[in-house]
Amino acid sequence: TMAHANGGFANTWPPASGPRQQNPHMHLLEAALALFDTTGDEADAALAHDLVDLFRTRLFDPATGTLGEFFTGSWQPVAGPQGALVEPGHQYEWVWLLHEYARLTGRPTGAHAQSLFAFGRRHGVDPRTALGRDVLTRQGDIVRGGARLWAQTEGLRAEIAMHGLPQDPPHADNADNTVQIARIVDNLLGRYFTDCPPGTWNDQLDPACRPAGDKIPASSFYHIVAGYAELDRLAGGSAGESAMRIA
């Protein structure tokens, strides 16, 4: 019902005015991969193949190694500043998805994942604090310099996905995966999960790394669980025991 004549899907049903977005396609790919992982039926992989093709041909900009957010009906970046926006958290989310797609289907995605990851490492992370930035331009200029929690957990998933893989080019100006993973976890425990009511979190830090805002979106819990699951997998299942001791 929501399929679009120019590829991909409508953001809402009934269709609403406004630009087309990559975000729902990203989450649809995640669902398609989970379905295929569950059934093993090649018919269930077809949607994932289509969505990765859409990423390669429409959503991804090879000149800058970035993922667009807002598009016209024919999948061109919308005019003006909105068409040049990049969210490092989404870049990292796609790194993990592309690795998961390659794992499940055997189809290589390393070059695209590496391009997204390299841009994120170069522009999307504050080298002083290791915090993932909120919004940039395709040239890496900061549009919104705060740090949402969900972007940190997606950075964690991307770092784990790239853990142990050769980087091209090598990130001589940045920490290796092991160090970066540890810095992200330290940020989560020390900046986001402290100085807040038990069972909650600081969802947003301002550019000075101070908690900002008075809301805790429920969507962030999904990102926390997704990041934790990858950390637990990397730790061989020991992360759960460690978290219980910390709690």
UniProtKB/TrEMBL annotation:
Name listed for the protein in its UniProt record: AGE family epimerase/isomerase
Domain of life, source organism: Bacteria
A Pfam short name: GlcNAc_2-epim
Keywords: Isomerase
GO molecular function, one term: isomerase activity
InterPro entries attached to this UniProt entry: 6-hairpin_glycosidase_sf, 6hp_glycosidase-like_sf, AGE/CE
GO biological process, one term: carbohydrate metabolic process
Keyword Isomerase: yes
Keyword Isomerase: yes
Residues covered by region (Disordered): 1-23
